[in-house]
Amino acid sequence: MPANELTPKQARFVDEFMIDLNATQAAKRAGYSELTADVQGPRLLGNVGVAAAIAARQEAIAKKLGVTQERIVAELAKIGFSDIRKAIKWQSALIIEQDNPDGGDVLVIRTAVTNTVQMVASDELDDDTAAAISEVSQTATGGVKIKLHDKKGALVDLGKHLGMFKERVEHTGKDGAPLVPVVNVRLSKR
């Protein structure tokens, strides 16, 4: 059988894998033994034909939905570089109350500072800020809660995608000295 042709069971595995990208569960749902599914799933992913079928499916889905690397990077950038000040405004205000309780010459002055937080109206949000918001909800006390997507996670993903965080491993010899390669040479007599 050519490598690009799948058995019915392998084809079913591909179908099931595309549901949740879980190789073990896909193997179980495709009819492989429950006892060996944790081995069969990864083994099937290593099969050239299965891997090609999965890649073709993923490419077709991405094309149909218009998902490109550029769009994903752009969305990560919106989240990573978002600024909460574009979504809410906060300020402090000094409140002064004057009272003349008994009508006499004594004037009572009370001062207080109040802090207010106001959300920017949704029709005033720019697209980048709106994309960075993951949740808006009303609290039990009637307030409003706004939650942004994980900024740090987006920046890390963006940096990894752009190759900014390559791990470097430096090897040294004893006491930090440079490694010296050992070469075994066998000389033969002629």
SSE layout and pairings?
Layout: H1 8-20, H2 23-29, H3 37-46, H4 48-65, H5 69-80, E1 88-99, E2 108-119, H6 127-132, E3 133-138, E4 144-148, H7 151-161
Antiparallel strand pairs: 1-2, 3-4
Give me a quick take on this structure.
With 190 residues, this protein is of the alpha+beta class. It has helices at residues 8-20, 23-29, 37-46, 48-65, 69-80, 127-132, 151-161, and strands spanning 88-99, 108-119, 133-138, 144-148.
Q: Main traits of this protein?
A:
elongated; alpha+beta; two-stranded antiparallel ribbon; Arc Repressor Mutant, subunit A; 190 residues; 4 strands
Structural write-up:
- With 190 residues, the protein is of the alpha+beta class.
- It has two domains: 8-65, Arc Repressor Mutant, subunit A; 84-161, no CATH class.
- It contains seven helices and four strands; from the N terminus they run αααααββαββα.
- The protein has helices at residues 8-20, 23-29, 37-46, 48-65, 69-80, 127-132, 151-161, and strands at residues 88-99, 108-119, 133-138, 144-148.
- The strands form two sheets. Strands 1-2 form a two-stranded antiparallel sheet. The protein has a two-stranded antiparallel ribbon with strand order 3-4.
- Strand 1 and strand 2 (108-119) form a beta hairpin.
- Helix 1 (8-20) packs across helix 4 (48-65), helix 2 (23-29) crosses helix 3 and helix 5 runs antiparallel to helix 7.
- The model has no long low-confidence stretch (mean pLDDT 89).
